[in-house]
Every structure is written in structure tokens, then in C-alpha cells.
């Protein structure tokens, strides 16, 4: 079998959990002798795979940042232009004989639909999150919702990363539940390390992930306990979060790491005592699984966020 898979990030160049998901998925399929051409936006440095069954194909002239919000004034029209251009180039670039086309989330849906029709092959769509999740369920953008709905309607099969996501797809997008299969995320074990008095937030710095609530809680904790708080990741909220830490008077206790490499991510998990996931909406947080993979009996990971109650069952 040969699959044309369309994504937007792949390790070591990734922003969110989708890159981790795509890496694990492509390698799992490759181990079963499935051949995958993985299409993604062009980056400054070429992405390669050492697996003979995985071929990374970069498309476009510039990088695309799919987590940026449409109201970000600094990108505005340039962002949408880049998305349209990426999809146009994908349609012209994807040729040859494939058995299935598999796309991930909204950024790739337009191209996937066109390639499905061009090549006459089935389309599989994996829904990692929806516009409702990314907006924190506050004023979701109809432009994204319309793209997502069209992609879901045209897909032959839909993979949802959780029962929660499946419910959103059915109730908010009007999709027949019979064509949706839930396949939960998974991670490779990280192992343990020497714990330090660190409390960790790791994720995209966007409204969906709730990093501002992490800082508000840090302020309350520091009124009673001495600890260091680490915010690991990048995103559009970074400048606001730095200002918030200063305003709360806790900037001397908060470390902003910026973007981390794969090895640095493993290290920060290993040395942190507590992992906090204050997401406003979390379809299926891979970071929760990664945190669990280094938790021992005295450092269990839990959350009150409805959907991630599924994670605790595994």
C-alpha cells in the first residue's frame, strides 16, 4: 500500500502535538511495510527520514504557521495567502499512484479534497482539534469552521483522536457518526530522571492551552511555597505572558524556555516534579501522555478537563 499523507509539521521541526502524532503514525505504518509520501510546507532546513518507507516531500516557497489566529495583525493576509498557496501547490505536486490520501486538520483539507477528486482515491481525515477547540470555544471563526465541515463531508473516513472530538464533529458539524473511528494518541515511554522543584507547563502558547491560568495559579502557589515555574513552548501569547508574569510580581520565579528540541523536551519532563495542563479545550493532549510516561507512584498526573479523563484509563 502507498499513502499520500499531508501534514504541516514533522520532527524535529514541530510546534504542537500533530508533529509527534505524524512521526509515530508514519513509522508505525512503515513498520508494516506501508509506503508513505509525507507532504509538508517547506522549511529553512530540509526534513529527512531515515526510514526507507517514509519519503518527506516539502512543498512551497515559505513556512506556514497553522496555529496563528486570523486576527493576528502581524500576519493577516500573508498567512491566508500562504495557506492558499500551499494548498494550490499540493494539488499540482501530488501525482502518481496512491491507494489513499490522508490529511490532518483544516490546513490541508482543500488540497486533500482536490487530490481525492483528481486521482479518484479514498480520503481519510484525522481530526486532532477543531476551530472550537483552538478558539477556546470563544468566538470561533466561521471561515475555519466552513473549511472543516467541507473536509469532513468529503472525507470517506474520519479518524477522531478521542470520543470528545467525535462528539464535537457529530454535534457541531453534522457528520454521520458511522464514518468516524476513534483512535487515541500514544507516545513512546520517556523514563524517569532526578526530580527538581519545578512545575511545568509545556505546549503551544495559545488561548486554547490556557497558559495565563498557569501563571495565575503560580502566583497563588508562591504565596505559600517556594518553587520554579517553567513555561516551555512558543506561540502568539508569549509577549503577553511575559508581561503578565511581571505584573504578578513572579517573573523571577518563572522561566520561559522558548522552543525546545526533542531531547530538551524529554529532559524537562524528567526533571519536573509536577506537570500542569490548564487547557481551555483539549481533544486529546499528547503532552498528558508524555507526562504520565515519566510519572511514578508519588507523581501521578490527573486533570479535571472532561475529555482527558479518557487518558487516565490507559
Note down, in words, how this protein is organized:
This protein is an alpha/beta fold. It folds into 2 domains: 2-182, Glycogen Phosphorylase B (Rossmann fold), CATH 3.40.50; 198-313, Rossmann fold (3-Layer(aba) Sandwich), CATH 3.40.50. 36% of the residues lie in helices and 17% in strands. The strands form 2 sheets. It has a 7-stranded parallel sheet with strand order 3-2-1-4-5-6-7. β6 (157-160), α6 and β7 (180-182) form a beta-alpha-beta unit. α2 (76-93) packs parallel to α3, α3 packs parallel to α5 and α7 packs parallel to α8 (238-248). The radius of gyration is 20 Å and the shape is globular.
Q: Helices, strands, pairings?
A:
Layout: E1 2-6, H1 17-31, E2 35-41, E3 54-59, H2 76-93, E4 100-104, H3 109-119, E5 123-127, H4 131-134, H5 142-154, E6 157-160, H6 163-173, E7 180-182, E8 198-202, H7 211-222, E9 228-232, H8 238-248, E10 254-258, H9 262-271, E11 274-275, H10 286-294
Parallel strand pairs: 1-2, 1-4, 2-3, 4-5, 5-6, 6-7, 8-9, 8-11, 9-10
Amino acid at each position: 500500500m502507498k499513502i499520500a499523507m499531508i501534514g504541516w509539521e514533522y520532527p524535529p521541526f514541530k510546534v504542537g502535538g500533530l508533529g509527534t502524532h505524524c512521526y509515530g503514525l508514519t513509522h508505525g505504518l512503515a513498520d508494516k511495510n506501508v509506503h508513505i509520501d509525507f507532504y509538508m510546507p517547506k522549511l529553512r532546513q530540509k526534513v529527512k527520514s531515515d526510514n526507507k518507507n517514509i519519503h518527506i516531500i516539502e512543498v512551497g516557497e515559505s513556512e506556514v504557521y497553522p496555529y496563528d489566529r486570523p486576527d493576528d495583525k502581524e500576519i493577516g493576509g500573508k498567512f491566508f495567502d500562504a495557506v492558499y498557496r500551499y494548498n494550490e501547490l499540493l494539488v499540482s505536486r501530488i501525482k502518481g499512484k496512491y491507494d489513499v490520501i490522508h490529511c490532518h486538520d483544516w490546513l490541508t483539507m482543500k488540497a486533500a479534497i482536490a487530490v481525492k477528486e483528481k486521482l479518484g482515491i479514498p480520503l481519510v481525515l484525522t481530526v486532532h482539534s477543531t476551530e472550537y477547540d483552538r478558539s477556546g470555544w470563544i468566538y470561533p471563526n466561521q471561515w475555519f469552521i466552513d473549511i472543516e465541515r467541507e473536509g469532513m463531508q468529503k472525507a470517506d473516513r474520519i479518524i477522531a483522536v478521542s470520543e470528545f472530538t467525535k462528539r464535537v464533529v457529530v454535534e457541531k458539524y453534522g457528520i454521520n457518526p458511522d464514518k468516524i473511528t476513534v483512535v487515541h494518541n500514544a507516545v513512546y515511554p520517556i523514563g524517569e530522571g532526578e526530580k527538581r522543584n519545578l512545575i511545568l507547563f509545556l505546549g503551544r502558547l495559545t488561548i486554547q492551552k490556557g497558559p495565563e491560568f498557569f501563571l495565575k495559579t503560580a502566583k497563588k502557589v508562591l504565596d505559600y511555597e517556594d518553587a520554579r515555574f517553567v513555561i516551555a513552548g512558543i506561540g502568539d501569547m508569549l509577549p503577553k505572558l511575559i508581561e503578565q508574569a511581571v505584573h504578578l510580581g513572579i517573573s523571577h520565579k518563572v522561566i520561559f524556555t522558548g522552543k525546545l528540541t526533542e531531547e530538551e523536551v524529554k529532559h524537562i519532563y524528567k526533571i519536573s516534579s509536577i506537570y500542569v495542563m490548564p487547557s481551555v479545550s483539549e481533544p486529546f493532549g499528547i503532552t498528558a501522555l508524555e507526562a504520565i510516561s515519566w510519572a511514578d507512584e508519588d507523581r501521578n498526573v490527573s486533570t479535571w478537563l472532561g475529555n482527558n479523563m479518557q487518558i487516565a484509563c490507559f
